[in-house]
Amino acid sequence: MNTAVLDQLRLDGFAVAAGAIIEPLLSDLRAEAIRLVRRFTDDGYRSDDYWFFNAAGAGQPVLYRIHNLESQGSALISGLYADGPLHSLAADILGAPVRSTACAMIVKVPGLAAAVPWHRDRTSVPPHSVCNLSVFLDDSVPENGCLEFVPGSHLLPDDADVTRACERGPIQPVPAQAGDVLVHDVRMVHGSRRNTSATYRRSIVVEFAPVGLALTSEDG
Ligand code: NI
């Protein structure tokens, strides 16, 4: 990671590592994403890890998240969660040996995906200690619900009012291209809008913490 990216991450709480996931891994991950989503849409597979909602007029349930993604029967994704390019990136960012602590796929279905309300992933850890790495499988733009952040909000107190932080702003949409890795401090105030476009917006998110730091399961 170059210094400018690390500096932005420290100051704003987020940054994009452009092109961090390269071919053929990117295409292979996309193929796995398609396979896992089709289990839900085509095969009727359901589990507590497949999160969906029912939308008026949608015809079928709308999938929005596959939780515990490392345990869904994809050797490629289990491998990515166990070790690899994201671990190197996270170790550079956190400046310490790291472990992966959570993994999910975010699916924003064209025309149907709802907004994700403003939230913070965790506040029980200090700033600059735990981060989420989002690997984009598709180009992510405002029209398909790219992530939006309140820059610097990782430095707000643990009990800061998220709604007030958004009202104060500024709010910054952060587009990314397929293969980019968007890094954000888990303390960041963030959310995303509906997908009003005709294109999918899929990402694989892996959380990283320093090896010695225990995390609670109450948040995140
Ligand atoms: Ni989040």
Overview features:
26% strand; 5 helices; Jelly Rolls; single chain; 4-stranded antiparallel β-sheet; binds nickel (II) ion; alpha+beta; 220 residues
Kindly state the mean pLDDT as a whole number?
95
Instruction: Assign the structural class, choosing from mainly alpha, mainly beta, alpha/beta, alpha+beta, or little secondary structure.
Output: alpha+beta
Query: How would you sum up the global shape?
Result: globular
The CATH superfamily is identified as q2cbj1_9rhob like domain
Small molecules in complex: nickel (II) ion
Q: What's the β-strand tally?
A: 11
> Biggest sheet, strands in spatial order?
1-9-6-11-4-3-2
Largest sheet descriptor: 7 strands, antiparallel
Q: What is the terminal separation in angstroms? A: 25 Å
Percentage of residues in helical conformation? 10-25%
Strand content: 25-35%
**Tally of DSSP helical segments:** 5
Low-confidence stretches: none
Order of helices and strands: HEHEEHHEEEEHEEEE
CATH class membership: Mainly Beta
User: Measured on Cα atoms, how large is the radius of gyration?
Assistant: 17 Å
Domain count, please report it.
1
CATH arch. level architecture: Sandwich
